[in-house]
């Protein structure tokens, strides 16, 4: 739930300080920024706990299921669907696309692209067999 009182108090303070309607509008703008947290620093990314490996079931499909979950595809997906999903995700998470971004975002893109590549290689290897 967003705050509402920043806009109200900003409008009143701006009007009273500048004694002009423009002051009220400026105060309203500052109040809007306050209500929508423009002045708070961004939260640091929470350190994620390492994902616990799930024990492989008797059929050994845990690794394959993981690979298909990365692409959000069923195991019956065609090669064309797999390639489309791979290209879509790599165009989104490729490290070169976020070269000028924050270091945290670069690191996230690198780990996600490694995961995508590992999943794609795993599926390709299983399909060649």
Automatic annotation (TrEMBL):
Keyword Chaperone tagged: yes
Start and end residues of each J domain: 66-129
InterPro entries membership: DjlA_DnaK_co-chaperone, DnaJ_domain, J_dom_sf
Pfam families reported for this sequence: DnaJ
PROSITE patterns the record matches: DNAJ_2
Presence of keyword Oxidoreductase: no
Keyword annotations: Chaperone
Domain of life: Bacteria
Protein name: J domain-containing protein
């Amino acid at each position: 739930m967003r705050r509402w009182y920043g806009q109200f108090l900003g409008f009143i303070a701006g009007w009273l300080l500048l004694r002009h309607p423009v002051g009220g509008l400026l105060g309203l703008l500052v109040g809007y920024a306050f209500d929508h947290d423009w002045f708070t620093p961004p939260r640091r990314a929470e350190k994620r706990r390492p994902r616990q490996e799930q024990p492989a079931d008797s059929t050994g499909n845990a690794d394959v299921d993981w690979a298909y979950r990365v692409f959000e595809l069923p195991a019956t997906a065609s090669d064309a669907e797999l390639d489309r999903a791979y290209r879509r995700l790599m165009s989104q998470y490729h490290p070169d696309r976020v070269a000028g971004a924050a270091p945290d975002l670069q690191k996230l893109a690198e780990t996600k692209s490694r995961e995508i590549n590992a999943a794609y290689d795993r599926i390709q290897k299983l399909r060649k067999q």
